[in-house]
Write a structure and sequence with these properties.
There is one protein chain. Helix 2 (about 30-50) runs antiparallel to helix 3. With about 150 residues, the chain is an all-alpha fold. It is built from six helices and no strands. The protein is globular, with a radius of gyration of 19 Å. It has one domain (about 30-145). The model has no long low-confidence stretch (mean pLDDT about 80).
Length: about 150
């Protein structure tokens, strides 16, 4: 059986892990930049699909939907910033690789996501993460282009 003291400590730990109602863990600035990035990506996808009559619909839709991933980490500001940096870097690399077929329209959304990662001073990703992610993604992109 669980003692009363253990039960109280578990309850306190659970209460501390959940933010108070009405408070958002991610700052309004970070959230605003991420929403702007999602809006830019959605607008780019709609514009691309209207302009090309659905050419590469699956690729374009998948590229636009990836911008939703940072919103899955809204309760954890550091994870939100890291996810924004990771997804923004991947989208930027993908936009540059796919520039030949028109994926360059996703560059503004990628840059807005990268900006969202660094907008809040207390919630920025660590230095090692901020340096390693873009370098690894760009190296992978370079390797992909070299293989072509």
């Amino acid at each position: 059986m669980v003692s009363e003291q253990q039960h109280v400590s578990v309850r306190q730990r659970n209460r501390a892990a959940v933010p108070e109602p009405g408070k958002r863990a991610v700052s309004a600035r970070q959230l605003g930049w991420a929403v702007a990035a999602l809006t830019a990506q959605t607008a780019a996808a709609v514009w691309w699909l209207c302009l090309t009559d659905g050419f590469l619909f699956d690729v374009c839709a998948a590229t636009a939907v990836v911008g939703v991933l940072p919103f899955l980490t809204l309760r954890r500001p550091k994870a939100f910033a890291r996810t924004c940096l990771l997804i923004g870097s991947v989208l930027l690399a993908w936009a540059l690789i796919g520039a030949i077929v028109g994926m360059f329209v996703f560059i503004p959304g990628a840059l807005l996501l990268i900006t969202a990662a660094f907008v809040q001073p207390g919630d920025r990703p660590g230095t090692a993460f901020a340096v390693a992610v873009p370098l690894v993604i760009e190296a992978a992109a370079a390797g992909f282009l070299a293989a072509l």
